[in-house]
Amino acid sequence: MDDVRESPSIKIIEQVKKHRAIALTYDPHIPEKSTEKNLEQILKKSKAIILVTDHDEFKAIKPQLFKKYEIKAIVDGKNCLDKNAIKKLGIIYRGIGR
Predict the structure, then answer these.
(1) CB-CB contact of 36 with 45 (8 Å)
(2) DSSP single-letter state for residue 33
(3) Long-range contacts of 41-46, Cβ-Cβ distance < 8 Å, separation of 24 or more
């Protein structure tokens, strides 16, 4: 099992909940700590995404998949997604450190 003790996702989830939003999670490396079973399941239930890890599965996401599931906004904490392609689809994109 991966070590999540110092993961920034813990503080992010706390902040999301503090603002009375629902925090759904998916990490293919830590399925027992995830609220959703796979990427498609979490995209179906989400309007915004906060990406905290740059797992290969996440880096391989085609921007059209976000559009298909009507994702409105993405915060890319690892700057690993195609910023320009996402913005061209009308999705709000913010990369941390850009």
Answers:
(1) yes
(2) G
(3) 43/68, 43/69, 43/71, 44/69, 46/71
**Cα–Cα distance, 76 to 82 (Å, whole number):** 10
Torsions phi, psi of 39, nearest 5?
-65, -45
SS3 85: helix
Reference 54, options 86, 9, 89; nearest CA is: 9
Q: Which of the listed CATH numbers 3.30.2390.10, 3.30.450.40, 3.40.1180.10, 3.40.50.720 matches domain 8-95?
A: 3.40.50.720
What pLDDT does residue 10 have?
Answer: 86
pLDDT in tens, the chain (98 residues): 556 666 788 889 999 999 999 999 999 999 998 999 999 999 999 999 999 989 999 999 999 999 999 999 999 999 999 999 999 999 999 998 65
